[in-house]
Design goal:
alpha/beta, 11 helices, 20 strands, about 25% helix, about 25% strand, elongated
Protein backbone atom coordinates (compact mmCIF):
# COMPACT_ATOMS: atom_id res chain seq x y z
CA UNK A 1 0.00 0.00 0.00
CA UNK A 2 2.91 2.38 0.66
CA UNK A 3 4.21 2.11 -2.91
CA UNK A 4 1.21 3.70 -4.62
CA UNK A 5 1.54 7.09 -6.24
CA UNK A 6 -0.26 10.29 -5.28
CA UNK A 7 -2.37 12.26 -5.86
CA UNK A 8 -4.82 9.45 -6.47
CA UNK A 9 -8.38 8.25 -6.22
CA UNK A 10 -8.97 4.84 -4.64
CA UNK A 11 -12.14 2.98 -5.65
CA UNK A 12 -13.77 0.59 -3.20
CA UNK A 13 -15.73 -1.80 -5.42
CA UNK A 14 -17.04 -3.80 -2.45
CA UNK A 15 -18.62 -0.67 -0.99
CA UNK A 16 -20.21 0.05 -4.37
CA UNK A 17 -21.84 -3.39 -4.40
CA UNK A 18 -22.87 -3.11 -0.75
CA UNK A 19 -24.50 0.29 -1.33
CA UNK A 20 -26.30 -0.99 -4.40
CA UNK A 21 -27.57 -3.98 -2.41
CA UNK A 22 -28.80 -1.58 0.28
CA UNK A 23 -30.76 0.42 -2.30
CA UNK A 24 -32.42 -2.72 -3.62
CA UNK A 25 -33.20 -3.93 -0.11
CA UNK A 26 -34.70 -0.55 0.84
CA UNK A 27 -37.07 -0.68 -2.17
CA UNK A 28 -38.14 -4.25 -1.43
CA UNK A 29 -41.81 -3.46 -2.04
CA UNK A 30 -41.21 -2.69 -5.71
CA UNK A 31 -41.89 -5.74 -7.86
CA UNK A 32 -40.41 -4.14 -10.99
CA UNK A 33 -37.42 -1.99 -9.99
CA UNK A 34 -34.86 -0.68 -12.51
CA UNK A 35 -31.69 1.12 -11.49
CA UNK A 36 -29.71 3.36 -13.85
CA UNK A 37 -26.03 4.18 -13.33
CA UNK A 38 -25.52 7.93 -13.73
CA UNK A 39 -22.55 8.25 -16.09
CA UNK A 40 -22.27 12.01 -15.60
CA UNK A 41 -21.70 11.51 -11.87
CA UNK A 42 -18.66 9.32 -12.44
CA UNK A 43 -17.61 8.03 -15.86
CA UNK A 44 -14.78 5.84 -14.55
CA UNK A 45 -14.49 2.69 -16.65
CA UNK A 46 -14.17 0.32 -13.68
CA UNK A 47 -17.33 1.68 -12.05
CA UNK A 48 -19.29 1.59 -15.31
CA UNK A 49 -18.30 -2.05 -15.86
CA UNK A 50 -19.12 -2.91 -12.26
CA UNK A 51 -22.54 -1.26 -12.56
CA UNK A 52 -23.26 -3.34 -15.66
CA UNK A 53 -22.08 -6.50 -13.91
CA UNK A 54 -24.47 -5.69 -11.04
CA UNK A 55 -27.44 -5.42 -13.40
CA UNK A 56 -27.76 -1.64 -13.64
CA UNK A 57 -28.69 0.18 -16.84
CA UNK A 58 -26.51 3.05 -18.02
CA UNK A 59 -28.18 6.46 -17.63
CA UNK A 60 -26.72 9.00 -20.06
CA UNK A 61 -27.38 12.63 -20.97
CA UNK A 62 -25.36 13.10 -24.16
CA UNK A 63 -24.37 11.33 -27.36
CA UNK A 64 -20.84 11.04 -25.98
CA UNK A 65 -22.02 9.21 -22.86
CA UNK A 66 -24.26 6.98 -24.99
CA UNK A 67 -21.34 6.00 -27.24
CA UNK A 68 -19.08 5.49 -24.22
CA UNK A 69 -21.65 3.19 -22.62
CA UNK A 70 -21.81 1.05 -25.76
CA UNK A 71 -18.00 0.94 -25.86
CA UNK A 72 -18.13 -0.42 -22.30
CA UNK A 73 -20.39 -3.27 -23.37
CA UNK A 74 -23.87 -1.88 -22.76
CA UNK A 75 -26.42 -2.83 -25.38
CA UNK A 76 -28.84 -0.12 -26.54
CA UNK A 77 -31.68 -1.73 -24.57
CA UNK A 78 -29.53 -1.33 -21.44
CA UNK A 79 -29.33 2.46 -21.78
CA UNK A 80 -31.61 5.23 -20.48
CA UNK A 81 -31.21 8.32 -22.69
CA UNK A 82 -32.02 11.59 -20.89
CA UNK A 83 -31.06 15.24 -21.27
CA UNK A 84 -31.71 18.19 -23.64
CA UNK A 85 -28.96 17.60 -26.23
CA UNK A 86 -29.76 14.38 -28.12
CA UNK A 87 -28.64 14.56 -31.74
CA UNK A 88 -31.09 13.45 -34.43
CA UNK A 89 -28.89 10.51 -35.41
CA UNK A 90 -28.44 9.23 -31.86
CA UNK A 91 -32.05 9.82 -30.86
CA UNK A 92 -33.33 7.72 -33.76
CA UNK A 93 -30.66 5.04 -33.18
CA UNK A 94 -31.67 4.80 -29.51
CA UNK A 95 -35.35 4.47 -30.35
CA UNK A 96 -34.73 1.90 -33.09
CA UNK A 97 -32.61 -0.24 -30.79
CA UNK A 98 -34.69 -0.39 -27.64
CA UNK A 99 -33.29 2.28 -25.32
CA UNK A 100 -35.54 4.00 -22.82
CA UNK A 101 -35.67 7.56 -24.16
CA UNK A 102 -37.04 10.35 -21.99
CA UNK A 103 -37.92 13.22 -24.31
CA UNK A 104 -37.05 16.72 -23.13
CA UNK A 105 -38.45 19.15 -25.72
CA UNK A 106 -40.64 19.58 -28.79
CA UNK A 107 -37.69 19.52 -31.20
CA UNK A 108 -37.15 15.88 -30.23
CA UNK A 109 -40.79 15.16 -31.09
CA UNK A 110 -40.24 16.87 -34.46
CA UNK A 111 -37.21 14.62 -35.04
CA UNK A 112 -39.38 11.57 -34.37
CA UNK A 113 -42.05 12.84 -36.79
CA UNK A 114 -39.44 13.38 -39.53
CA UNK A 115 -38.13 9.86 -39.07
CA UNK A 116 -41.36 8.06 -38.29
CA UNK A 117 -41.08 5.79 -41.35
CA UNK A 118 -37.87 4.34 -39.86
CA UNK A 119 -39.51 3.53 -36.52
CA UNK A 120 -41.94 0.95 -35.21
CA UNK A 121 -44.24 3.05 -32.99
CA UNK A 122 -45.57 0.17 -30.89
CA UNK A 123 -42.03 -0.86 -29.86
CA UNK A 124 -40.76 2.54 -28.74
CA UNK A 125 -39.86 3.07 -25.07
CA UNK A 126 -40.60 6.77 -24.86
CA UNK A 127 -41.05 8.76 -21.68
CA UNK A 128 -41.52 12.50 -21.20
CA UNK A 129 -39.70 14.65 -18.70
CA UNK A 130 -42.22 16.55 -16.60
CA UNK A 131 -41.67 20.18 -15.63
CA UNK A 132 -44.02 21.47 -12.94
CA UNK A 133 -43.87 24.05 -10.17
CA UNK A 134 -42.20 21.91 -7.53
CA UNK A 135 -40.97 25.02 -5.71
CA UNK A 136 -44.53 26.04 -4.84
CA UNK A 137 -45.15 22.62 -3.27
CA UNK A 138 -41.74 22.38 -1.60
CA UNK A 139 -40.75 26.00 -0.85
CA UNK A 140 -37.02 26.84 -0.79
CA UNK A 141 -36.04 23.29 -1.72
CA UNK A 142 -35.39 23.38 -5.47
CA UNK A 143 -32.09 24.43 -7.02
CA UNK A 144 -33.81 26.84 -9.40
CA UNK A 145 -35.75 28.40 -6.48
CA UNK A 146 -38.08 31.10 -7.85
CA UNK A 147 -36.60 30.78 -11.34
CA UNK A 148 -38.29 28.20 -13.55
CA UNK A 149 -36.58 24.87 -14.10
CA UNK A 150 -35.36 24.70 -17.70
CA UNK A 151 -35.93 21.00 -18.43
CA UNK A 152 -38.83 18.99 -19.79
CA UNK A 153 -42.41 19.74 -20.82
CA UNK A 154 -44.30 22.29 -18.74
CA UNK A 155 -47.43 21.01 -17.02
CA UNK A 156 -48.93 24.38 -16.20
CA UNK A 157 -48.99 25.77 -19.75
CA UNK A 158 -50.27 22.45 -21.20
CA UNK A 159 -47.04 21.59 -23.06
CA UNK A 160 -46.99 18.15 -21.45
CA UNK A 161 -50.55 17.47 -22.60
CA UNK A 162 -49.70 18.71 -26.11
CA UNK A 163 -46.59 16.53 -26.29
CA UNK A 164 -48.59 13.44 -25.36
CA UNK A 165 -51.22 14.37 -27.95
CA UNK A 166 -48.59 14.76 -30.70
CA UNK A 167 -47.10 11.35 -29.90
CA UNK A 168 -50.48 9.67 -29.94
CA UNK A 169 -51.31 11.35 -33.26
CA UNK A 170 -48.25 9.51 -34.65
CA UNK A 171 -49.47 6.23 -33.21
CA UNK A 172 -46.92 6.31 -30.39
CA UNK A 173 -48.12 5.48 -26.91
CA UNK A 174 -45.96 7.08 -24.19
CA UNK A 175 -44.45 4.46 -21.92
CA UNK A 176 -43.69 6.60 -18.89
CA UNK A 177 -42.75 9.86 -17.21
CA UNK A 178 -39.42 11.21 -16.01
CA UNK A 179 -39.70 13.25 -12.81
CA UNK A 180 -36.08 14.15 -11.96
CA UNK A 181 -35.57 17.53 -10.26
CA UNK A 182 -32.46 19.16 -8.80
CA UNK A 183 -33.03 20.15 -5.18
CA UNK A 184 -31.05 21.73 -2.38
CA UNK A 185 -32.64 19.79 0.45
CA UNK A 186 -32.83 16.23 -0.97
CA UNK A 187 -35.73 15.82 1.45
CA UNK A 188 -38.21 12.97 1.58
CA UNK A 189 -40.96 15.56 1.03
CA UNK A 190 -39.51 16.29 -2.42
CA UNK A 191 -39.52 12.63 -3.41
CA UNK A 192 -43.01 12.03 -2.11
CA UNK A 193 -44.17 15.05 -4.13
CA UNK A 194 -42.41 13.84 -7.30
CA UNK A 195 -43.84 10.34 -6.91
CA UNK A 196 -47.34 11.63 -6.20
CA UNK A 197 -47.30 14.03 -9.15
CA UNK A 198 -45.92 11.39 -11.49
CA UNK A 199 -48.45 8.77 -10.42
CA UNK A 200 -51.35 11.21 -10.73
CA UNK A 201 -50.25 12.14 -14.26
CA UNK A 202 -49.92 8.50 -15.32
CA UNK A 203 -53.50 8.06 -14.16
CA UNK A 204 -54.77 11.29 -15.71
CA UNK A 205 -53.26 10.55 -19.13
CA UNK A 206 -54.13 6.82 -18.95
CA UNK A 207 -50.55 5.67 -19.51
CA UNK A 208 -50.76 1.94 -18.82
CA UNK A 209 -48.02 -0.63 -18.12
CA UNK A 210 -45.89 2.42 -17.52
CA UNK A 211 -42.56 3.29 -16.00
CA UNK A 212 -42.18 6.10 -13.49
CA UNK A 213 -38.63 7.40 -13.53
CA UNK A 214 -38.00 9.30 -10.29
CA UNK A 215 -34.45 10.21 -11.31
CA UNK A 216 -31.75 10.79 -8.71
CA UNK A 217 -30.75 13.38 -6.15
CA UNK A 218 -30.97 11.16 -3.07
CA UNK A 219 -28.88 11.98 -0.04
CA UNK A 220 -26.41 9.43 1.20
CA UNK A 221 -23.13 9.83 3.06
CA UNK A 222 -20.88 8.12 5.63
CA UNK A 223 -22.26 7.79 9.15
CA UNK A 224 -20.20 10.77 10.28
CA UNK A 225 -22.27 12.99 8.00
CA UNK A 226 -25.69 11.37 8.34
CA UNK A 227 -27.05 12.98 11.51
CA UNK A 228 -30.78 13.44 10.83
CA UNK A 229 -30.48 12.96 7.06
CA UNK A 230 -32.86 10.55 5.30
CA UNK A 231 -31.64 7.11 4.29
CA UNK A 232 -32.74 4.92 1.39
CA UNK A 233 -35.52 3.31 3.42
CA UNK A 234 -36.90 6.77 4.21
CA UNK A 235 -36.89 7.65 0.52
CA UNK A 236 -38.56 4.36 -0.36
CA UNK A 237 -41.38 4.98 2.12
CA UNK A 238 -41.90 8.51 0.78
CA UNK A 239 -42.03 7.31 -2.82
CA UNK A 240 -44.40 4.45 -1.92
CA UNK A 241 -46.72 6.89 -0.17
CA UNK A 242 -46.75 9.27 -3.14
CA UNK A 243 -47.51 6.54 -5.66
CA UNK A 244 -50.11 4.78 -3.50
CA UNK A 245 -52.18 7.97 -3.40
CA UNK A 246 -53.09 7.45 -7.06
CA UNK A 247 -52.17 4.04 -8.50
CA UNK A 248 -51.07 0.55 -7.53
CA UNK A 249 -47.30 0.29 -7.09
CA UNK A 250 -47.36 -3.21 -8.60
CA UNK A 251 -48.73 -1.83 -11.87
CA UNK A 252 -45.65 0.22 -12.77
CA UNK A 253 -41.93 -0.11 -13.35
CA UNK A 254 -40.11 2.18 -10.92
CA UNK A 255 -36.84 3.61 -12.27
CA UNK A 256 -34.25 5.19 -9.99
CA UNK A 257 -31.07 6.90 -11.15
CA UNK A 258 -28.89 7.12 -8.01
CA UNK A 259 -25.78 9.16 -8.74
CA UNK A 260 -24.00 10.84 -5.83
CA UNK A 261 -25.83 8.62 -3.34
CA UNK A 262 -24.28 5.54 -4.96
CA UNK A 263 -20.75 6.57 -5.91
CA UNK A 264 -19.65 9.32 -3.51
CA UNK A 265 -18.72 7.09 -0.62
CA UNK A 266 -16.96 4.47 -2.77
CA UNK A 267 -14.04 6.74 -3.73
CA UNK A 268 -11.36 8.19 -1.45
CA UNK A 269 -8.61 10.62 -2.35
CA UNK A 270 -4.99 10.53 -1.16
CA UNK A 271 -2.37 13.25 -1.47
CA UNK A 272 1.08 13.73 0.12
CA UNK A 273 3.08 16.71 1.40
CA UNK A 274 5.79 17.92 -0.98
CA UNK A 275 7.05 20.94 0.98
CA UNK A 276 6.45 22.85 4.25
CA UNK A 277 7.20 26.49 5.04
CA UNK A 278 6.54 29.09 7.72
CA UNK A 279 4.62 32.20 6.77
CA UNK A 280 4.38 34.60 9.71
CA UNK A 281 2.22 32.79 12.30
CA UNK A 282 1.14 29.94 9.99
CA UNK A 283 2.68 26.68 8.85
CA UNK A 284 1.88 25.94 5.21
CA UNK A 285 2.06 22.38 3.91
CA UNK A 286 1.83 22.02 0.14
CA UNK A 287 0.48 18.71 -1.15
CA UNK A 288 0.93 17.11 -4.57
CA UNK A 289 -2.84 17.19 -5.23
CA UNK A 290 -5.37 20.00 -5.57
CA UNK A 291 -8.63 21.14 -4.04
CA UNK A 292 -10.07 20.90 -7.56
CA UNK A 293 -9.69 17.11 -7.40
CA UNK A 294 -12.17 16.84 -4.53
CA UNK A 295 -14.22 20.01 -4.89
CA UNK A 296 -14.45 21.05 -8.56
CA UNK A 297 -17.06 23.72 -7.79
CA UNK A 298 -14.81 25.20 -5.07
CA UNK A 299 -17.56 25.24 -2.45
CA UNK A 300 -14.92 24.78 0.25
CA UNK A 301 -17.12 22.67 2.49
CA UNK A 302 -15.00 20.85 5.07
CA UNK A 303 -14.40 17.28 3.90
CA UNK A 304 -14.25 14.10 5.96
CA UNK A 305 -10.51 13.56 6.31
CA UNK A 306 -7.67 11.88 8.17
CA UNK A 307 -4.26 13.52 8.34
CA UNK A 308 -1.24 11.31 9.04
CA UNK A 309 1.10 14.05 10.33
CA UNK A 310 4.49 12.94 11.60
CA UNK A 311 5.58 16.18 13.29
CA UNK A 312 6.24 16.09 17.02
CA UNK A 313 4.82 19.51 17.86
CA UNK A 314 1.32 20.94 17.58
CA UNK A 315 1.09 24.15 15.56
CA UNK A 316 -1.41 26.98 16.18
CA UNK A 317 -2.30 27.47 12.50
CA UNK A 318 -1.63 25.03 9.70
CA UNK A 319 -2.82 25.48 6.13
CA UNK A 320 -3.00 22.37 3.96
CA UNK A 321 -2.66 23.64 0.41
CA UNK A 322 -2.81 22.21 -3.09
CA UNK A 323 0.01 22.18 -5.62
CA UNK A 324 -1.38 24.64 -8.16
CA UNK A 325 -0.45 28.31 -8.38
CA UNK A 326 -3.94 29.49 -7.39
CA UNK A 327 -4.13 31.20 -4.01
CA UNK A 328 -7.46 29.58 -3.14
CA UNK A 329 -6.20 26.03 -3.77
CA UNK A 330 -6.43 25.02 -0.12
CA UNK A 331 -7.73 21.78 1.39
CA UNK A 332 -8.03 22.74 5.07
CA UNK A 333 -7.06 25.19 7.79
CA UNK A 334 -6.24 23.42 11.07
CA UNK A 335 -5.58 24.69 14.58
CA UNK A 336 -3.54 22.84 17.22
CA UNK A 337 -2.79 19.74 15.13
CA UNK A 338 0.52 17.95 14.67
CA UNK A 339 2.72 19.62 12.09
CA UNK A 340 3.02 18.02 8.67
CA UNK A 341 6.33 16.93 7.22
CA UNK A 342 7.33 16.08 3.66
CA UNK A 343 5.83 12.74 2.66
CA UNK A 344 2.93 12.83 5.16
CA UNK A 345 -0.41 11.62 3.86
CA UNK A 346 -3.82 13.30 3.75
CA UNK A 347 -6.80 10.98 3.18
CA UNK A 348 -10.08 12.55 2.11
CA UNK A 349 -13.12 10.31 2.18
CA UNK A 350 -16.21 9.92 0.04
CA UNK A 351 -15.53 12.13 -2.96
CA UNK A 352 -16.65 9.90 -5.86
CA UNK A 353 -19.47 12.11 -7.11
CA UNK A 354 -18.78 14.84 -9.72
CA UNK A 355 -15.01 14.81 -9.17
CA UNK A 356 -13.37 12.56 -11.77
CA UNK A 357 -15.77 13.90 -14.40
CA UNK A 358 -14.51 17.45 -13.82
CA UNK A 359 -10.81 16.55 -13.95
CA UNK A 360 -8.90 18.51 -16.56
CA UNK A 361 -5.28 18.96 -17.59
CA UNK A 362 -5.08 22.40 -15.97
CA UNK A 363 -1.48 22.66 -14.73
CA UNK A 364 -1.29 18.92 -13.96
CA UNK A 365 -2.75 15.79 -15.48
CA UNK A 366 -5.63 14.27 -13.47
CA UNK A 367 -4.81 11.96 -10.52
CA UNK A 368 -3.96 8.28 -10.63
CA UNK A 369 -6.81 5.86 -10.03
CA UNK A 370 -6.41 2.61 -8.06
CA UNK A 371 -8.70 -0.24 -7.11
CA UNK A 372 -8.75 -0.66 -3.32
CA UNK A 373 -8.92 -4.47 -3.17
CA UNK A 374 -5.56 -5.06 -4.88
CA UNK A 375 -4.28 -1.51 -5.54
CA UNK A 376 -4.26 -2.21 -9.26
CA UNK A 377 -3.56 0.95 -11.24
CA UNK A 378 -6.66 1.78 -13.30
CA UNK A 379 -5.50 5.10 -14.71
CA UNK A 380 -1.97 6.42 -15.01
CA UNK A 381 -1.47 10.10 -14.31
CA UNK A 382 1.00 10.39 -17.19
CA UNK A 383 -1.48 9.29 -19.85
CA UNK A 384 -4.20 11.29 -21.54
CA UNK A 385 -6.83 12.00 -18.89
CA UNK A 386 -9.61 10.23 -20.81
CA UNK A 387 -7.58 7.06 -21.25
CA UNK A 388 -7.78 4.21 -18.76
CA UNK A 389 -5.86 0.96 -18.68
Amino acid sequence: MQDYKTPCYIIDEKMFCDTLALIRKSFFRVRNLTLGYSVKTNHNRALMLLAKEQGMLSEVVSDDEYISSMAHGYQAEEIIFNGPQKSEEMLIFALQNGSIVNLDNFEEIAVIKRNLKYLQPYKLKIGLRVNFDLESLCPNETTAKQEVSRFGFCLENKDLQIAIYYLRQMGIEPRGLHMHYSTISRSTKVFRTLASMGASLLKEFTIHNAFLDIGGGFFYAPEAFMRARPNFSDYASAIYDGIDEHINLDDIELILEPGVSLVSQVVDYHTRVINVRKMRDASIATFDGSRMHIDPFMTHRKPLFQLHASGEENVPIQILAGATCMENDRFLKLSGDKECRVGDLLEIRSIGGYTMGFNSCFINNPPYIYRKSDMELLRDKSTNFMEEL
